[in-house]
Here is the input.
Amino acid sequence: MTESNAFGEWPLRRLMTEAVGSGHKSADDMTREQASEAFTRILAGEPAETTLGAFWLANRWKRNTPTELAAFTDVLRERVETATPECDPVDCGANYDGKHTSALLGVGAGLVAAAAGTPVVVHSGDRVPTQEADAYKHVLDELGVRTDLSPEESAAMTDEVGFGFYYQPRFAPAIDDLSDRRREMGVRTFVNTIETLANPANADVHLGSFYHLPFAKRIIDTFGKMDSQQVDRVIMFQGLEGYDDIRPGTTVVAEWDGAFTDYEIETAAYGMDFEREQLAVENVAADSATITEDVLAGERDDHFADAIALNAALRIYARDDADTIQSGLKMARDALASGEAAERLAELTQF
Here is the structure.
């Protein structure tokens, strides 16, 4: 398709030539207006495949600024069908391309948090590039939970159970339509970042993960520059495989609630006194579902139970339902001991 002036003055080929395409050291950053126009063109399917691939790769080399990421996300949010639960949940923005090695603990952690009084929302697609690995949808499928939900059904699930799942093809079909192009890239693009910020439940609290602290700061700054949403609090931590499961050991946590702070926690002090290799499984979706069922039923109290409890504590703390991670951990363990978390799983499978 030939790029036109229908969207403005900055087709992707011009942006490549005059701004982002000169290499990771000499490339210029885009203005908000340029970034907005670029992503609008992409979602409209206008750029030729070669041009789009070059643009995505150039942005990966130069690294996107919070201004650019905020502009991309605002354009995305214009096309997201949101549905807001009444319960004001925590939005968990895990990488959509999933995990391939370690157990996915967020379903169990979310249900434990819900049982302790902290509603949680998660969202994912289905085999999203580049890893196309197991994500929230696949663990929920193994548990027998309905996942092909409209946003309104997802909001109802959240209010009824305290844990809700939003399915990307239903709330953001424009992003789902890019799957083939993203798959051909073979590397992550900025779409992998902004889809985790889609916030289909319009939550006031975002919980996410990072590999390195500067990325967490960039995401927090991105929220500050968005026009399409205004969150009250952001908690991010070093996640296992980049997912929203906290890694064992010394872990950095970044917080923002009007001011930015970061600190380290020793997860062994909260019961996670084991190595990350001990969280590895053979089949992420199937094994994670089994682990979730067993832990919530009280049939295992091993390192997986400790990891689920601590991840639930982070969700409770993120929503400010506990003053400290330690007090959130006590709430999580009480919810497990009472059997309430197992009841939430039963309600989820019956929804």
About this structure: The two ends are 44 Å apart (CA to CA).
